[in-house]
Amino acid sequence: MRRIKKPFIGGIGFCIFIAASFFTDFYPGMEMAHHFQFFALDMLKILPCAFILIGLFEVWVKNETVERHLGERSLFMGYVWALLLAGTTVGGLYVAFPVAYSLYRKGARLSVIFTYIGAAAVFRVPMTLFEASFLGLKFTLIRFLVSLPLILLSSIILGVYLKKKRFRIEDGETFLRRDQEKKKNGL
Questions:
Q1: Which of 123, 139, 153, 184 could make a disulfide contact with 135, Cβ separation 3.0–4.6 Å?
Q2: 68: CB partners within 8 A, 6+ apart
Q3: How far is it, in rounded angstroms, from Cα 13 to Cα 121?
Q4: Phi/psi zone of residue 107: left (φ > 0), alpha (ψ -120 to 50 degrees), beta?
Q5: How confident is the model over 112-148, as pLDDT tens digits?
């Protein structure tokens, strides 16, 4: 119950702050309201379509296909597929994290998932074209050539480390159930 109360109270506090900002002409508060409105509308445009596509991916793509191309036996090609998928991801990390979770559930290797998330943050095609048009092709290529090995290296190191620790990503229900059991047992 406390987990629900804190965000709810925080949301009410934010709304009161925004309303008070408009009544008192407090400029930073009014700017926050405009940015929040822009952000919320942007998310409402992207997320419904993204979740529909992720749902279709869950149903249409077989686990064996993901395991073959992104799983333990995919070797280096798994990273290539992750980079290609990340380059075409629209919506930034709003979309990349649910896709990454879906890939994990279907059998993708952790290091490949980390590569996908890192590349989705850095190498999306629309963002790269936008960057090249404003900052120049030379800057974009240098950033690309420096970032790519760092993303791959950190993903591999993190994947190996977490595999040794037998790390698993849990769904929200399992996490909450285990958390409630810990609280009952006084841990």
A1: 139
A2: 74
A3: 31
A4: left
A5: 999 999 999 988 888 888 888 999 999 999 998 999 9
